[in-house]
From TrEMBL:
Family annotation (InterPro entries): CdaR_GGDEF, Homeodomain-like_sf, HTH_AraC, HTH_AraC-typ_CS
Organism: Paenibacillus violae
Pfam families, A to Z: GGDEF_2, HTH_18
Residue stretches spanning the membrane: 12-33, 292-312
Keyword field contains 4Fe-4S: no
Protein name: Helix-turn-helix domain-containing protein
Keywords from the named record: DNA-binding, Membrane, Transcription, Transcription regulation, Transmembrane, Transmembrane helix
PANTHER family per the UniProt record, alphabetical: ARAC-FAMILY TRANSCRIPTIONAL REGULATOR, HTH-TYPE TRANSCRIPTIONAL ACTIVATOR RHAS
Family matches, as Gene3D superfamilies: Homeodomain-like, PAS domain
Length: 762
């Protein structure tokens, strides 16, 4: 595994700085926040107990108040001492109705009993009339009825099922009058327990309701017969408490509890209510939030580690590939690859600077050679746009410019006062070119000098389009005169300068130069300095011309390119235009003869002999014997165009086959590298479109299909013959592992691993 070099420390620092704050905040909340929450929770618990005591107290006060009212409302028109429950039907029914109303007047009331002291009877709302038989019970009830308080609480009666151990006693009548009866109100234990259990709604703690002597009134949700261990501990801890309200934190069995104790005064009694609630229950939301924050921080760190590692690998892979491209087979050795790349970049920058300097040095000669071929007409196969691109690449701006040609020729070097001798033609031409360059440079003329090495120079001058035609022509003649005068003065030779035509099309420069060069033949013999104007030497006529020059140029271009179908179509179009514009058949025949001559001239310039293409047949004799213009066109197609195209295609096929074979050799030797169609085209001196079409023609496959098939074939051999990792095999055949896996599965229908396993099972 490659060593983590690419900003490893910085990545770790970023990850920790991004995730640790959340974890630290969680710890602070957990440590400091929990303590504060415990205090607030203890205070809230104390308030909750105080509120609960107040509510219970209000319920009991309400009960006492109602019972006091009922003690005055229970009268039968005579005293209870004179009541005959068996004979006085109305009175007895009234008692039962009142007992029913009393029981329904408060939800805490579980059962209501009326004790008649004189009759020794108990009248219950739900069980009727009962005569007390036991003397002990009679003594107990007589004692309750004779108590010195009119309304009081007593625990002397045995509680029935579902009733609390305390009962409310109401003497009837009250005051100093001798008691005749007593109302005994039993409290519904379930209702009372519900009130008490509100202090521990979750049921995770303990709540006790105790008498002054420590006896249990209620344990909330627990049964008083079966108190829990926590209930026992709580009762023990508050035994003997004399404070009305107190709060503290106690620890039992390793768990912290918030303990709150309160007291309430009842008639003749002092009752105590205590509640213990686990602190964890009250601080659980904060603890949970703190844990979530800490866990989230930890997960964030882990996720950041994974994402950073993944991002690092994704970012580092291009760096590693770039490093391997710069230093094939070299390992970084644990050092930062960027140091190597920076050093190599400096080295490449120095080499680039050196190469740029060399290019700058050779650019004038490159430009001169290109313009030499352009003026000689050797680049006529290029379109105007292609020529423009080539010229601009050589550092010459074309747009918005008009071009003019000066053809300069030197004569009489053998009469140059002994300065030159026979064989010095190139030396003289070179000296003249340097002088012309210096003159144009000093005059600030935007021009280019082309040396034809035969005592002839071509001066290509660029003029601004916004200059008037008279000014353009005047500046050209002034330049021609200065060139002729200076060369004659310095070299002592005869100089002739012909001012050619102007054009804004690069394709027409060769024609303009040919005209200017041909016009040099009209110089006067013996004159040392001559200035010629091509328009004067080769004036333009005013006769009507019915010859399609543009169509002829397209025909000659198609002939040089070997596009047979296009050429045949252009010939037909040329003939159609010719018939439409010519007035006589003679004009048509003469134009076709002219076209035939130009076609043969183009074939000669291409390096083919028209005589050999037709087995030595005298073509002009055959052509002269044809009278019909349509037959002339067919003859041109059959005896001039077809043989040349056939011979050209044979030559091109051989060249194309040789080119494709060289490209195949490159693929077989460099398939592991990042090669492309453009790379191979540049390497073998051609252009992409030609190579693409030729490759398809020769191999029957496109370049990328052949390269992919060859790489996968090599990969399958490595999968079967070696134990190398699939990722390493992918790199060896020129693919990145993810793309290799997808491509392999798409073409083979299975992954590389499945291919290897399947081959191993055979």
């Amino acid at each position: 595994m490659r060593k983590l070099v690419y900003r490893r420390k910085e990545l770790i620092i970023v990850m920790l700085s991004a995730c640790l704050p959340a974890a630290i905040i969680g710890i602070i909340l957990y440590v400091l926040g929990t303590q504060q929450i415990e205090k607030e929770a203890q205070k809230a618990h104390q308030n909750q107990v105080a509120y609960g005591i107040e509510r219970i107290n209000e319920n009991l006060n309400h009960l006492e108040s109602i019972m006091a009212q009922w003690s005055f409302n229970l009268n039968l028109g005579s005293s209870f001492a004179d009541l005959d429950v068996y004979q006085d039907f109305r009175g007895t029914r009234s008692i039962f109705q009142s007992l029913t109303w009393i029981k329904s007047s408060d939800p805490l009331i579980g059962d209501v009993t009326l004790y008649l002291d004189k009759q020794h009877m108990l009248i219950k709302e739900n069980s009727g009339i009962n005569v007390i038989q036991s003397s002990d019970d009679l003594q107990l009830y007589h004692t309750l009825a004779s108590y010195q308080r009119d309304v009081y609480w007593s625990n002397q009666l045995k509680s029935n099922n579902g009733m609390a151990p305390f009962s409310l006693i109401v003497r009837i009548p009250g005051g100093l009058v001798e008691t005749e009866a007593a109302l005994i109100i039993e409290i519904n234990a379930k209702k009372l327990n519900a009130l008490i259990s509100e202090l521990d709604a979750e049921g995770t703690g303990s709540t006790v309701f105790l008498q002054q002597d420590g006896n249990i009134i209620s344990l909330g949700q627990s049964s008083i017969e079966r108190p829990t261990d926590l209930d026992k501990i709580l009762m023990k801890s508050i035994a003997g408490s004399k404070t009305e309200v107190t709060s503290s934190i106690q620890t039992w069995n390793g768990e912290a509890y918030s303990l709150s104790v309160g007291q309430m005064k009842r008639i003749g009694n002092l009752w105590t209510i205590a509640s213990a609630t686990p602190l964890d229950q009250m601080t659980e939301p904060v603890q949970r939030l703190s844990r979530v924050i800490m866990i989230t921080g930890c997960l964030g760190i882990l996720l950041a580690l994974l994402l950073s590692w993944y991002s690092y690998r994704r970012m580092y892979n291009p760096v590693h590939r770039f490093f391997q491209q710069l230093f094939p087979g070299r390992s970084s050795g644990g050092h930062n690859e960027f140091e190597y790349i920076a050093d190599e970049w400096k080295h490449l920058s120095r080499e680039s600077q050196i190469l740029q300097e060399r290019i700058d040095q050779h650019l004038p000669s490159l430009r001169e050679n290109f313009m030499l071929q352009l003026l000689q007409g050797k680049l006529s196969f290029l379109s105007e746009g292609e020529m423009t691109d080539r010229v601009e690449q050589l550092g010459w701006e074309v747009n918005g410019r008009e071009h003019a040609i000066l053809a300069l020729q030197i004569h009489g070097i053998y009469r140059s006062e002994g300065k030159f001798s026979p064989g010095d033609e190139q030396l003289v031409t070179f000296a003249a070119m340097n002088i012309v360059k210096e003159i144009t440079k000093n005059k600030g003329i935007d021009g280019l000098i082309v040396n034809f090495h035969d005592l002839t120079l071509g001066v290509l001058v660029r003029l601004r389009n916004d200059m008037a035609e008279e000014n353009q022509q005047s500046s050209l003649f002034h330049l021609a005169e200065e060139l002729a005068h200076t060369l004659n003065s310095l070299l002592k030779v005869e100089v002739t300068v012909c001012v050619g035509a102007r054009t804004n099309e690069l394709r027409k420069l060769s024609l303009c130069f040919d005209d200017a060069r041909n016009a040099l033949a009209y110089r006067k013999h013996g004159e040392t300095q001559q200035i010629l104007d091509v328009e004067d030497m080769i004036p333009g006529g005013h006769d009507a011309i019915v010859y399609p020059f543009e169509e002829e140029a397209a025909i000659l271009k198609a002939l040089r390119s070997g596009h047979e179908d296009e050429l045949m179509a252009l010939l037909d179009h040329f003939f159609t235009l010719l018939k439409a514009e010519a007035s006589t058949e003679l004009d048509v025949r003469q134009a076709l003869m002219q076209l035939c001559g130009n076609l043969q001239n183009t074939i000669l310039l291409s390096g083919y002999n028209p005589l050999q293409l037709n087995d030595g047949v005298d073509m002009w004799e055959q052509l002269a014997a044809i009278r019909e213009p349509e037959a002339v066109v067919r003859w041109i197609k059959q005896y001039i165009v077809a043989p040349y195209i056939h011979r050209l295609h044979l030559t091109q096929d051989m060249q194309l086959k040789r080119l494709v074979e060289n490209v195949l050799t490159t693929i077989h030797s460099s398939y592991a590298k990042d090669i492309s169609l453009e790379y191979c085209a540049d390497l073998h001196g051609t252009y992409s479109k030609k190579l693409s079409l030729g490759f398809k023609q020769v191999t029957g496959q496109t370049f990328i299909d052949y390269l992919t098939q060859y790489r996968l074939t090599r990969a399958k051999q490595l999968l079967l013959d070696t134990d190398e990792k699939i990722n390493d095999i992918a790199m060896q055949v020129g693919y990145q592992p993810p793309y290799f896996n997808r491509l392999f599965k798409k073409i083979e229908g299975m992954t590389p691993g499945q291919f290897r396993d399947k081959a191993g099972q055979v």
